[in-house]
Each structure stands twice: as C-alpha cells, then as structure tokens.
C-alpha cells in the first residue's frame, strides 16, 4: 500500500539555474522540465534599471561638473535629465558658461573668457548678451570682423531683432566693415511693406538709409528717411544734409540744418557741422557765428573754441588766433583732453610755438606726455622745420622716456619723414623700415605717415607704406584710394586694374579720384594697363551717373 502511494505522488527535485531565474525539474514521465520565474526576473530587471538610472545620473553629474566645468549641476536634475530634459539642460549649461565667461573678463582672464563664451553661445544661442560680447572679442581682439558680424546676424533670428540695443550694435558692425548689402537684406526681410513707425523699424530703416547713402544710392536713402519720419530726429537731419552736400547742393544742406536749429537749439553736432560746412564754403562770418553760438550754449566745452581757431587760421586772422590760443592755454591747462586737442590744432597748422607750449604744460601737469611730444615733432614737419624735428627727436632719445618703446614705430616714422626732408634717404630708409616692420600699426597711422611723405614729394615711400597697409587691411577703402592715387602719380600700371576694380566694388568712391583715374587711364602713359578699355567704360558710366558731383569736382 505504501508503494502505491509513492507511485501516485512521486517526489520531484527542482534545480535552480541561470542565477535562480530558471528552474529545472524532472517531470512525472521522467522528462526534464524548465520553467522561468517571471516574478523574480521582472523584479531583478526593475532593480537593475533603477540602479542603472541612478548610476547614469551619477556619471552625468560628474561628467558635467568636472569635464564640462558646470559647477551648478545637481544630482537631482541629472535624475530627470533623460529623456526629456536634454535641451533645457543644454541651454542652462550654456547660460552658465556665458556667465562665467563674463566674470573671467572682469578678472582679466581673456583666454578663458573667450573659450567659455564660445561654449556658452553654442549651447545657448538665444543668449544675446553672450553673443554681443563674443562678437566684440572676434572684432577687437582677434581681428575677425567677418565672424563677429556672422555671430550678430545669427542672433537676430534668436530674438535679437526685437532687442533695440542688440540691433544697433549689429548695424554698427555691419556699417563699420562696409557690409551694406547685408543691411539692405535685413531691411527687406524685417521691414513691412507699409511703414510701421516702431522704434525697431525706425532703427533698421535708419541703418538702411546710412548703408544706401554710403553706396551712393541717395534716392533710396531719402525714401527711408521720409517713409519712417526720420527727419524728425537730429541724426536724420544730419544724414539728409550730408546727402544734399554730396549731391553738390551745398546750399540745401546748410538750409536743412539751419531749419533744424530751432528744434535742436543746443545740439553740438548740428552747430559744429554748420560751422564746418560754412568754413569749407568760405562763409567765414557764418562759420564763426555758429561756433560762437555753440560756445555760448556750453562755455566749458573746448570743441567750439577749437573750431574758432580753425576759422581764424583759414581766414588769416592771426591776431584773434593768437589771442584765443592764449585763452585756451589758460582755461584748459588742467584738462588733458582739451590740451591735447589744442596740440592737434598746433600740429595741423604747423604752429611749433603753440605745440611746444602744450608740451610744456603737459610736462608740468604730469600728463601722459607721449602724444604731446609726437605732436610737437609733427608741428615741426608741417612747418617744414625738419632739422628742428630731428633735434627734438634726439633730445627724447637722450632722455629715453618710458613711453618711447611703446611708440617706437610712430616715432621712427616721424624721424623718417624728417630725414628725407633734409635729403638723408639713407637714414630715412632705416627709420621707415622700422615703422613698416611694426605689426600693430593702425590703418589711420599708415594713412597719416603716407600723406606726410606725399607732402614732401616722396611718392615711392608713400606707395611702399600704402602697399603694406593694403596687404594687412584689404577692406580699408581709404587706404585703397590713397594707394590708387599713388599708383596714378607714379605711372605704375601693373596692379592698377585690380586695385581700381576692387575700389569700384566698394562704397561710392571719391569723384575726384575717379575723375583723375579716368583722365590718366585715357592718356598714352597708361596705354599698357591690363583691362584698360573695360575700366574706362566703367569709370565713364559712373561719372555720367554722378554728373552733378562731377561739376563740383571740376569747379
């Protein structure tokens, strides 16, 4: 009976395998059976998933904190990062890097600041402050205005078009580097067909008006000024007056500004421009009146007083000029900027005595003496006192002031001019080469030195300087214009076609230069200039379009 009970209820043995997730047993019929413990398997998988999630969060935490320098990262945020918070986290990290980059700038760590700003803007492209500062880095420090402009343009689609300060900075950079077509593209894209007089639209319209004015598209510039009521603003009046002036209608330009005086009675730019325009036309009494009016409205300002000095100098009123310089020396001797402006006037007019007085005042007041010393040398050069310029230069060399090392290139450029002036080209060439070898010379410095050589009829030396300047700053229209003028003077034909073609791609060139180029290219001296006929046709077309300005040039 016992045997029967054992037969009906056989004892089976279970054997766990695969870490206990599967059980192996022998069935009644002697066959091996395998069954999965689903509850245990699901529980283990859930435990692994949770453990992996926390481990991944920990790994991300350490990755962002130490590898990505994101100190504000938190472990709890990393738990919720995947899969839905990645983009928000990326922007948050970008904003953090931009904030850190701005802090590094304040501490003077510009290399780290640039790296952090680049990372930050890449991750948070809508951070306009980061874009603005990064663009300044590219423009000023790295001399890559193309990248700076691209950064600012990309920011417009990230909300920058609605930020008036950001828009103004973008337009300033584009105007500064002759990117006028991009400004017109922005106007076409963002300005409505029917003008809406919002601050954003008016700002963009004024930028487009400026760009078109600089390209010689006067009618289109006027359309923007009138359509957006920009003539109600001082800037609009000044631009409209400049358009009239450049069109050859000087009386209309002055009339527009005179009508605006009652609306902007104490505006220094308006009154000073009226004074300068009248001075250029020879209306000395009117020029003096506006300069005096500006001085009455702000007697502590040196600008109108300096304008009066230029007026007295041009009209040959030596007595008043001397009397006014004495007054300014007394009144502004403790104002370094005003005193330096007076020294600039002395250098421009070759007034060596006045330049020396400003230099002595600067010494007595312990100002930064470098500018005053260099301006004194310039005054000697303008006065054609080359021996005096070299003598003062030797005095400075004996004293060896601290500033001389930093200004060594400019100092040598002045010595070079003086040396050529006394017919010592051997010394002049040495000094000139020292100036050219300086990599940090600014475009305006090249222009000033080249013009000094031109004034003493040393055109080869002027061309040498301008060629170096053009190679270093090929987008600078003033340098290119001066280089073309130098090539025309010397009769060089080798590069003239390329230089003129490049100039015609830029903003509206000076009519006087185009007239000179057209006349000289038509002569036998330039008969072998490459593409001569094509250039003559282009120049002729431009001059016909600007016939009114051409009449002014000829007169």
From TrEMBL:
InterPro entries: TPR-like_helical_dom_sf. It comes from the Bacteria. The chain crosses the membrane at residues 41-64. The keyword Transmembrane applies. Keywords: Membrane, Transmembrane, Transmembrane helix. Coiled coil: none annotated. It comes from Thalassobacterium maritimum. This is Tetratricopeptide repeat protein. Pfam families: TPR_16 (PF13432).
